Amino acid sequence: MTEKLCRVTIMDIDGGGHAVDVKASSLFEAIALALKMKGGSIATDGFRPIKVLIFEPQKEYQVKLKDFMAWLDRNSRSPREMIDRLKIKEILGVRKMH
User: Fold this and answer.
1) 94 Cβ neighbours under 8 A, 6+ residues apart
2) CB 60 within 8 A of CB 52
3) Which of 55, 82, 91, 95 is the most exposed place for a label (fewest CB within 10 A)?
4) Which helix (H) or strand (E) holds 28?
5) CB 94, CB 35: distance < 8 Å
6) Do the beta carbons of residue 40 and residue 2 sit within 8 Å?
7) What is the pLDDT along the chain (98 residues), one digit of tens a residue?
């Protein structure tokens, strides 16, 4: 997928939204970029949805942080999936998530 402009909104534990615009080539890449930019300064419990709005064509997704982290830890089923996970782990600066 080509890079697209996305608005990622991370919900904090008080229900407030923290939005950041990123260019990403996948849903999880957009989340990783937003977490890298904003994640350390936002208190979240992992169960509140992270909203990803793709501007062109317009689509919106919601992913719980705990599901995102579980996806990062899961074994890849294909070489493409392995490359996607490695790219996102590199964005976050982690080797193994636990």
Assistant:
1) none
2) yes
3) 95
4) helix 27-38
5) no
6) no
7) 689 999 999 888 888 888 999 999 999 999 999 988 876 667 677 778 889 999 988 999 999 989 999 999 999 899 989 998 999 999 988 865 44
